[in-house]
Amino acid sequence: GLWGWVVSAAVRDAYANPVAAGTPVTVRVVSGSCGSGVFPQAMQIDGTVTVGNVPSCGSGTIQAGIAYACLTAPYDEFASFPSFAVEVLAAGGTIGCLPIDHGGAGAEAASIVLVSVEDSSLAVAGVGGDETSVLEFEVRDGSGRPMREGNPTPVTFQLVASPGGGASLSRTADTTDATGRVSTSVRSGTASGVVKVRAVAGSVASGVVSLAIRSGPPDANHFSIAAEKVNIEGLLRFGIEDKVTAFVYDVHGNPVQPGTAVYFTSQFGGILGSSVTDTTGRARSILYSAAPLPTCADGGLVPVTARTVNGLNQTIEAEMSVLFTGPTVISASPSSFAVPNGGYVDLVVYVRDACGNPLVSGTSIEITSSGGTLVGNTKVTLPDTQSPGYTQFWVRLTDDSSNETDPPVGATITVEVTSKNGDAGFVVFGTID
């Protein structure tokens, strides 16, 4: 805005009497103290006026022997000269000088205002984006005027909150310049999140300034894919769903920006083809058991691939496989048994599908005998697995009547399976002496 002041100068003759109305007087402004400095060009004053004149910027009673002049300037120009002087000259030379201080030395900081933020969103370090942002503050006195060159004010900068990863300030303390302003720069680190800064001068503090440190683009070494279940009964029926998630992070392991596109493909079955990441860097899809199905030649495996684009506009991908299994198949080796008197027999029971793969998680396998003592993997619940180690179960049947001389008697080992792959039973026949 524009400020205007009325300058009044009392003009007297050698005997201290008011001079006659209309006597010419020159009024001027200088930037320093009386008798020094240069004329601030943006500060306008009436210049040559006459005693008893009516000022253009004010009104009131005109007094005898008084010359009036108007001093006007934009606010910023006044602020640039916190102290200056007004001189009054007549034909005989300088008749008076008035030094003016309108917010310079002696004023105290009353508020700190954020003037500008270079960039409110930064990239994590090392990914090619803007990593620094300049924050500029202005310290003001109780009248809302900047603390100019007449009153330099020490200011400290505080990092109120940080996501870590080395985020920092270029300087933690400085002094206001000739315009009452002071600045610092925020530097991002390797962690994404929010950084908060404030400026403090004595007991006065600015509001908290928040900047976002955003993550970088997807990185191939931080891109992976997983399924909720690695084994589903997909060869048994269509329409079984398995949740698939891609995990997308930048070179520092931060979740990429929400909304990053990820594309999913599956060699067998069906899959939701596209998704976008959430705030945790996860993009989700669903794999369905459907035609075409994998065969035993494929190992029953369904390869699933997730693809996205890195910072160089190159496609990167991650792959995993889900096992589709079929109906329950049970067998044993040996296929029969004969436990000698006082001895034992070891058997391996195979519980799997037709491709030799383990059944799905939650499958319950219970093995019992009609005689003797049976130990080993007699009661098992399968985890979610693709390992062939969960298709073979060892048991040992021991004669618990070694002192008897009776002839061998018939016995059985019974296998009962409860599973989403299909409930089934199997009996191994033999004798115990």
Helix proportion: under 10%
Distance between the termini: 113 Å
Describe the sheet with the most strands.
Answer: 6 strands, mixed
Treating each run of at least 4 consecutive H or I residues as one helix, how many helices?
1
What's this model, at a glance?
The chain has 433 residues and is mainly β. The chain has one helix spanning 75-80, and strands spanning 2-10, 24-30, 44-45, 48-50, 66-74, 83-90, 93-101, 111-117, 121-123, 132-140, 154-161, 168-169, 173-175, 181-187, 193-201, 204-205, 209-214, 223-227, 231-232, 241-248, 261-266, 270-271, 274-276, 282-288, 301-309, 315-324, 329-333, 336-339, 344-352, 364-369, 373-376, 379-381, 392-398, 409-418, 424-432. Strand 34 (409-418) and strand 35 (424-432) form a beta hairpin.
Model description:
- By secondary structure, the protein is mainly beta.
- The chain is built from one helix and 35 strands.
- Strands 9, 11, 13, 15, 16 and 17 form a six-stranded mixed β-sheet that branches.
- The radius of gyration is 45 Å and the shape is rod-shaped.
- The model has no long low-confidence stretch (mean pLDDT 89).
Question: Keywords for this structure?
Answer:
433 residues, mainly beta, six-stranded mixed β-sheet, five-stranded mixed β-sheet, 1 helix, 35 strands, 1% helix, rod-shaped
